[in-house]
Structures
1.
Amino acid sequence: MRILIEEHQYTINEIRDVIYGIDALEDIDGHVSIHYVGYYYNSLLKDCVFILPKVLLKDVDGKELVFGKYRPEDIISLATDNTLTPEEQNFIYKFAVWIYRAIVVYKNDRRNDSGIVYHKKMVQVGNIGRRLSNTYLDILLSLVQWAQDNQSFIFTVVKNIHRGLNKINWNRTIATQPAIVQNGQPIYLNPVNKKRQINFDEELLIIFYSILKHINDTYGFEATIACHFQLIASSKFDVYLHGFGKRRLLQIKYKYFSDKALELWQLCYAFFDESRNLFVSTERREYLLAKNFYVIFEAIIDELIGDNPLPDGMKKKQDDGKIIDHLFTSQSLIENHDKFTYYIGDSKYYKMGHELGKESIYKQYTYARNVIQCNLDIWGRKETPESGIRLRDDVTEGYNIIPNFFVSAKMNELFDYSVDGISQTNRQNKRHRKEHFKNRLFDRDTLLLFHYDVNFLFVLSLYARNNTNQKTEWKQAVRDRFRKEIQEWLQQDYSFYAMRAKVHINGEEYIKQHFKELIGKLYTPYTDETVYSLALDKKQEFIKTNQELIEMLRTAFYVEECRLGQDPNEVLPEVQPIVEYSTDIAELALCIVKEGVNFDSAISVLKRTRTVGVALQMSGATLSLVEGFTKARYLLIHNKSNRYEVFLFDGEGPTLVPGSKIKMQDVVTTKKDADLYLIYKLNMDVAVDFGKLNLLPITKKPKTSYYPQLIPIKSFVTE
């Protein structure tokens, strides 16, 4: 077996004989590269040549090395070169099978461009032109071919095995079974059949068809099981794979004398032995080669990730000539249930560790712009797309986030085919952002691009097996994975809030009036269109302006932090009955100050526990109580600036509680570690709306403003 690596620059003298019979590209310096992946038989060397994908190559100090360890020139001949470890050699033999299967699946799919695949039947079992096989692929193909070409022999063996099986033993039947007499004739309902001895032909067929089932389940080869024997269970078959299969076949070899039986025995033994010493016949020109293997890799990722056909009638080839590879619809990043968006992927078939080029990044942004425009065109024609997706929100004039991502291949260092290895790439640049305006996530021209790696072995084997259920299961799992991780990445860069207008506020009108401050920061992603999503960039340069914006919005909206995918109703208060200010009633407000981050923390605790405590001081044996505290109807909590919240007490009056009985994490207090507290309960079933308040009566006295105060509410009302 000879090994070449796709697109690697070999010197012509090193591989002149190896590339005999195929086209190769030679440059003026005497180097040659092969732009194929696949298999061909070299009649000059009388050996098989596998051209393996360039993903095996890793750049190490400017050198292209297989597995990051070996020069491709040093592993051309596996029969003579002992550079690879036994594990690496075994991987190469099995890897070649997966490459073959992937090319076959691609070729057989009518949706694909089969013109890039060059195929001539590879292996024919027979007596003419026999050669010594040295590939695991030969063994598998020979097993499948033998089953197809020897149906008559198998039928004859099975017929002989069952001959006499149903012959009745009348002596034992009459002696042991009751008879029913009908019209003077005895009838036996349960006749005893003659027993037969163990048949070694049957055991050989069971082993053979168990092998076929194994390679069908493992590699996806179409192998018809033409008998109804009880095959060897998968757990038990593992024992056969690890040595018992060879031992058992050697034990029963002497039982076979016909050429066909011996031929079948030899095939089965070669499978378990993996000695690769099997004589198979071949034509002088046999090959399965794929030109531009990146096209097949794109087909693999598209089959395993994308929608086919594309959603909403979109064309794979766009009007500007760009080709969208992996487009699908899935849950929006913001809303967790009913709202969907488009996800745009692109596969990159690189050598391990290769960085994205600027052209690839720019094209991906163009794909996103095309998808946005296509969606706008559908709604512009007053039509509703089948997906129901609407990227633009007419109220906020914001655009939904379109997850845009690359998927490139990596090699599992343990040669493990079972794990997908989906993860953010370990390349230098993992995320890209294109924006015309800063701090406007929901702007049409803010485009995000993420980069993932996937285990090439996993997607190759999943595609090659061509098992619909397995592909569907992984497709859903990986889509969920993309969504979850892109959400996490976004939340590293942005703070997300949910907003709902207060009862006396017309949310739409407010947004129109403050359009300049809100454009690109607001979007309506939820089923409940009275709830908005606010996204603010976390960069240091935006902290001050973001805080000012939130404070402005809180005068008209409930604004609470809400993670992507979180139900906004979990953080936003319901629209409550309103307690309005009456000039006819002189009512007191208990005023408490909480500055900085303590303000938001206090509000959060209040909404959760509905409890506030006023610390009392001991003066000898006398409590120093502020007159009127028990008569307060409202709680006004403020930050000594322009942020405040007003709450209604429950009307039951405060209770006196020792400090030792209070869990401080459950109570907002005016002072920690006091001996006694007046504990108030809040009525959270109603909202308090006194319009815009003037906090000057509190803040104009800096020395006393930090203490809890009782002030008539009319002192704050501006109207």
2.
Amino acid sequence: MSDILLPRIPVTEVFPVVEDGTLAAKATENEPLPIRATVFREGHDAFAAEAVLLDPDGVEHMRAPMADIAPGLDRYEAWVKPDRPGTWSFRVDSWSDPYATWRHDATIKVDAGVDVELMLEEGALLMERAIDGNALNNPLQKPLDTKDAEVLRDAAAHLRDTSRSVQQRLSAGVSSHVRAVFRAHPVRDLLGSSREYPLAVARERALTGAWYEIFPRSAGAFQREDGSWVSGTLKQASYELDRIAEMGFDVVYLTPIHPIGTTNRKGKNNTLVAYEGDPGSPYGIGSPDGGHDAIHPELGDFNDFDDFVERALELGLEVALDFALQCSPDHPWVTEHPEWFTTRADGSIAFAENPPKKYQDIYPLNFDNDYDGIYEAIRDVLEVWIEHGVTIFRVDNPHTKPVRFWQEIIADVHDTHPEIIFLAEAFTRPAMMRTLGAVGFDQSYTYFAWRTQKQEIEEYLTEVSTQTAHLMRPSFWPTTHDILTPQMTTGGTAIFAIRAMLAALGAPNWGIYSGYEFVENVQRPGFEEQNDNEKYEFRPRNWEDAEPLGITRLFTLLNAARAKHPALRQLHQLRIHPTSHPEIICFSKQVSGAFTESGNTDTVICIVSLNPHEGVSGTVHIDLNDLGIQTPGGHIRVVDELDGATYIWGSEGWVDLSPVTRLGHVFSVEPTIDLEPWTNRH
């Protein structure tokens, strides 16, 4: 028999739990999250359950009554909110509820004239038990304070008052005042608890952010009359920061800024031969000028980098740095530590391969040859950049390194720098993506770019907000420097606007690769990436030329809506709403007033056309009651965050969307009547 016994009132199938509690489920400061469990008991007596949230010191932070969310299946749920980062925990308490049992039985029996005096006396005795803090097999039950005790003492007296009618006596025991006391201070007979399960609570930026990606070498780059190029610099890249901040982005992401090797350097569009002046891929890291802990001389030095970081912070931007663990053949590690790489039968070091692809300009690390040595070197590299103000690392291809390595090194970094955030760039099998999140990655790239049809978008939004939210925090990117899906090549400005809206509204964390404002949509033949790819050449841009396309303004409006509405910055509470047109998608995001500073529930209804070529129109169906925003008249007032227009909506609304006029709505529901959809009622 197992040494671990279930509580007297069984609690099973607790959520969120990762690997039976061996790994911590993800949570974020100030974001509500659901706790669920299956709770039941023998017989017909009433029972209750609460989710108990414990802070990093093990002190009880809050208790939340659990409500039945699947009648007949015994599935219960409550919402809790940690208020600071750290290693938290939670459990589920269950108990027998004698007051609910008595109220149910007494109502039936008294009405039927069965055991009337006995039932009324049992009610009075229960009131006295509650006053004294006397619960069955529960030494933690506390006596009531004077005010609540007086309410129950008066009720007990009325239950025993034979001068009153039977119904008057019963009414005294089930009055709203009595019920309120028992809601606040239930008699917890047979109290028991599940195990305590860990929650890794991260700071808010781990969940929510608006990223803007740049290649620093393109900023200020120019071509001489002879055709040769002059690289941009970190100093010139810092001049871009004001523009990025003005659009409402809060993370600036730099592709690798390290020295680039010359051996087997890639040329334009990933050709195997580089010509004079080709800058090479910044992912071919390492040269005689240094490796991962160095800066490409053409970009500047650490003083320039420090100035870049300082200016970014002044503008409210955090700096994310690409962290790509592979080496050019010219990397210092290749000569200093050849054992860190895979040696082939002919004595050569193996290039990175993803058959049939070959990456002749990089060597992958072989962690199995000298795990400790490689670990210490990488840990030292991370420390260098942390000391220079980097707070976020976008990790390139983490799925090609051992999962255990990431589990160890992320925990190691978080021990001394808990504010550091790691984003996993792993477009790979679901098991690997989920596990990388589970072992420590704070954020994860997703399949969003490839989800294009209404049904698959709806399914994916539901998946990342419910099924995997405790394992990985999603980041939505319409394009990256590596990805340009076929959809983006044919829809012009409209499809770029549509995908930006879906990304910014569908996930609390989203990102844009610079140049998106220009609708750069020409694919390299045979590949899902841009032609004339910035990975292999300089690509300076005149940003004023992008203004007429309107994407810049759209970014600004979307990021302003996200900053205004906490609902758009949380992950868990997303609902899909039916529409009559197959190319109109509607979803809402919501935060209960119990968890907002204003005390008002924040609800945002997002409606987006999926057709970049033609106008679409149809009906949107909103279950106002399900959202907790039902009004006596059945109407709500909504304000479009994209243009400030106000509308009166009901359970059905008509939308007319077009690439020419508008492609979507971002409706903020004005507070009218707040029914608190997450409040648990008995």
3.
Amino acid sequence: MKKFYSGVVRHRKWIMVFFAAATALCLFLQGLVGVNYDINEYLPPESASTVAIDVMDEEFDGGIPNARVMIRDVSIPEALEYKEKLKSIDGVQEVTWLDDTLDVMMPMETMDQDTLKAYYKDETALFTVVIEEHKRVQAVDAIRELIGDDNAMTGSAVATAAATENTVIEVQRIAAFAVLFVFFVLLLTTQSWLEPVIVLLGLGVAIAINAGTNLIFGEISFVTNAAGNILQLAVSLDYSVFLIHRFEECRKENSNAEEAMVDALCKSTGSILSSGLTTVIGFVALCLMQFQIGPDLGLALAKGVALSLITVFIFMPAVILTSHKYLEKTRHKKLLPSFSGFGKGVTKVMLPLVCIFAVVIVPAYLASNSNKYYYGASHMFGEGTQTGRDMKQIEDTFGQSDNYVLLVPKGDTSKEKALSQELHQIPQMTSVISYVDMAGAEIPRDFLDADTLSLLESEHYSRMVLALDTDYEGDETFQLVEQIRTIANEYYPGTYHLAGEGVSTYDLMNTVTDDMVKVNALAIIAVLVVLLALLKSLTLPIILVLSIETAIWINLAIPYFTSSAVFYIAYLIINTIQLGATVDYAILFSDRYREIRQELGCEEAARISALGTDTRTAAQKRRDRRLLKKQAAAKTVSAVTVSVLVSGSVLTVVGFLLGKMSSNELLAQIGTFLGVGAISSLIIVLFVLPGLLYLFDGLVVSHRRNEKSEMNTKAIKEELCNE
């Protein structure tokens, strides 16, 4: 490693040129990376709803209804005019209204009242609209311009368009606040006015390169686009800070800056790599998800942390050496007080807190797995947004509604008629639009115009559009999907296809719940294996992982006790992210505890050896051992508090910024979980972990005497002679 780092130091000018060019290129490439805002498109390709959508795209021009448009104070003739205006909007494929199921020339009193009220009531018309995927933003904007703010629209296409327009602005705003906070934290915790600038420069280069290289994926999810950069900022911050501080330590021993940097790099590689590796493992575990947002986010974040590590080991040395004279000139006194008193205070309460920790583990675990969940995108925008308010207005007037598309093999109209009649018997079914419903099983196809017929039949399939009085998700919806699939399978075993937002959400629920156990278990196992290799201990990795997992359970149990619904995707993602991002705190703490504990133990052993004989009783030995452990815990808390708080506070603030400033409820919930998760991990590491290490000291600390012990013996003998 020394030879490699010597080369890095020698060629630092060329390295800076290379990274400057790479950053500039990646800033340009970032604009070419596509962003996908449709959550249902990340279902596995083999899921039943995805296959159904693919078949329908091949067979029909019209898609699945993905928007509802409500217009107030209109007569039936005026509603028909609005229908034509909606159909003329670029990106609108299909508009369905009352006239597609009933003869609107008939008196309303003679119409089927259930069907009538599903489309028109109290002089308010509700249209079902199909919007093209690649023209959602333009089409939704045009519909809004047509109907005005007094009317309403909702649906997955509307939500996706809103997310597309809002997320970019919100992410930029969040990133700006996050950078300002990081700069403020670094000003408080560093001893040079220039150091925060250097750290942020290194982070900025790594983030820019990661964002640009996302082009290899073609497109990324809106979750990755929104959270990727700020998460990389939060979890990679301490790598650069640690290197700078190690360089300053080495400079005290070696006046040659280049040699000091090589020494600093050699000494810090193990600690930084171990920290980065556990974080990467946590993110890579997301790649095991069948739901493709997991691999999307996991790969981008793992790549980001890897690039941050490369930047720290190659780019940062060049920057530090170039500016080290200015670092020294801009040094200032410590702005934060010593935490020695805090460390002593923690040792007074650590054992009672361990008892509380032991009591909390089981209920926290059970509560964290007993939440009420949202699986799809239907609740992604709250009532504080235009989309949320529109959804409420439509549901208050017409109730809950969703549309499914059922494709069955073409040819047997009598079977189709029987299937339609049975579907009509479902209580939640408000209408069925199909060839046999519009023309009848015995009426020739020439009865319908070509455009209408092309929407109902293709070369191989008949198309049934089902309108249902149900939400986009929930137990009732999922039971309804199962019921419709069961009925369809009786008539067309294994040959039918069912699609719709509720159907996709049902498949999404099954996919992500299957992912849960697998992803979390493998993430924990992988981190344990890495820690076993790094720490060379059987007990310590279990203590560290259990500590962070308990922090995760506490974090995810809060919604249960506050009766709040949780987005299952956020729940699944945060498990691995919090583990990967905060286990570093526990590793740092345990490493420092073992180091201090061995030093104190060696000093004690050396002192006894210098005296020639150990006259202590067994009770005195136990007391002295307890004092040594307590002293080690206090010193460790004092030594690591600033480092842990820097990383933890940044992750906390970044999380809460995302939680408070994002109009997307899924992103906001991920952010809130990040903020609360960072706090819970910090509390357990600083207040509970000291007690756990104290109690299991004999299993986590090696007490073998070494060369350091012999040196301490010699020093203490000289001290005793002088006395």
4.
Amino acid sequence: MSDKKFTPFIAPDQVMKEFTWKAVITGACFGIIFGAATVYLALKAGLTVSASIPIAVMSIALSRLFLKTTILENNIIQTTGSAGESIAAGVVFTLPGFLFLSETTSADYFNYLTILVLAIFGGMLGTLMMIPLRSALIVKEHETLPYPEGTACASVLKAGERGGNFAKTAFSGLGFAVLYAFFQKVFHLIAETPSYITAQTNKYLPSAKISGEITPEYLGVGYIIGPKIAGVLVAGSVLTWFVFNPLLATVVPPDVIASQLIKLGYLKDLHTAGGPGGWDPTTHQFADFATAIYRAYVRQIGAGAVAAGGFITLIKTIPTIVSSFKGSIGKIKKEQSGTGQSLRTERDLSLKIVLWGILALILLMAILPMLPGNGIASKLLIGILVVVFGAFFVTVSSRIVGLIGSSNNPISGMTIATIMGTCLVFIAVGWTGKVFEPMALVVGGIICIAAANAGATSQDLKTGYILGATPRAQQVALFIGAIVSSIAIGFTIKVLDTPTQEMLQSNIHHAIGTDRYAAPQATLMATLIKGILSFNLDWQFVLVGVAIAIVMELCGIKALSFAIGIYLPLSTTLPIFIGGAIRGWVDQRKKSSDNTHEEDLRQGNLFATGLVAGGAIAGVVVAFLSANDSIAKNLVLLNMEESITHLLGEQGYFLLGTFIFFAMAFVLYRVAMRKEESL
């Protein structure tokens, strides 16, 4: 196999400081910071930012200033810190749903202790289940699963270690992205999501929409994953926005779409304006018909496709997983016999730790009083469901981030599938009352956190594999990061949930769920649980997604990649595709060049890495600045969008942003075409 030819940056027999308290404590501090930022972003808009690369960049800077850490210590810093972002995303996407369930008493579970326990359980589960999967997904599929952010993070750390032009290229990309992002996110000189939508009455493509979130990080991710994956990804989005949307816009009246949005919890009633697409109760029309259709119907189709694609992927991966488990068992036997000492870079935590850890999690879920349930027996069932769904979606999540990166991991789609499966089990055993809704949310919440953390863990382990890190050290660091971050995440959520005086006067006791912190993902999860347990879910849309995934697989197309494209908006997949297209063009023009150069240290990859890092860092900084009300008000004064729109018009503003984005893409292309520096 080709993975045998791979040589890590640090040789397995080389002795170097790695797991030190200096590195762990620094990483834990970063985990707290990025976890808090993610909580804010996810509550506001359902979005997250990647943490590993920004932390890696910061660790290099701190190392040069005063920490004097090695490259492997810097890897431990980013590994420990990355847990904060992933766990925060999983928590915020689900657990605020306690506030929106049928029984008002369900809100009592939205307390600090319950949030803390569920966050730790989900974080632990994601890391535990990735231990036996590392060999199968990270090592054996090193060349087939790029893990773009993990590869990019390794490139950053290696560039920082090498210095010279390697670092210069990576950090020039970072600086370019930061400058671009601040002009976009602070001054709004560059439109964030240019879009064009056809009229509903259009004869050929009614309510078709083309849009792109023209950010440096998406362009960089696309370049890293390459044209093949990026092409399949955008194809799924094209099916959504140029086939499903025009078709449904033709046959489904606006009032029916609005009623569907009400059913899903996006819109209060037909007499209330707003919701996805901008419903107007006076004209009975949507300002953005395409978005309304997407939220009302297509996301359910996408969720079904993701679930089916994930199941197909799991079936295809079973032989690899089985061999990985056999390898883990073989390691245990060797350890017990005292023979067969493995290389440092092959030492994982024992499979016994995984098994005992999972058993402990099930038992704790059964006895802890702060978790919902009708006795030990019902809580045991919840624990078993968590482990079953966890084994499935941890694997799926790892493979997804291996293809397109953690930033685009459709965690909400996997959570939706988990909630559907859990509710069906509940129905099968006769649990259909409102009292069971919080129990279903617990399963969905833990799986969401576990899947998110598994994705981040996979990227970290990929980084470690490229660098020559000790897997065992990384896995311990991940456990520490998960616990520390969970403590801070729960605290941050409760602080942000504190109602203002105006809210209290209006008898509103939670800031989460208001316009201040809408928590859109959690609202959807609660709505699904209520709909399924009350036998009020549109299964026909879910099954359409399942059928599409099967058809794609039969056609020889990777169903999971295509399904992700259906679920994600075109605004996400299109800029990723542009980055992938540039990579394909560069590879085609440089196909006769020397192929012995390390792939992740090529000029294009280094600059793309910088774009991803810079965009993520800028997003976090802006999130922190926006969290302070006084600073947020001053940032509004810097917003030039209205002035530019007044001067150029909305479409002119969009065209200006698109032009600047393509200018950035051209810079990436020129850097990638430069002659490679010899190693």
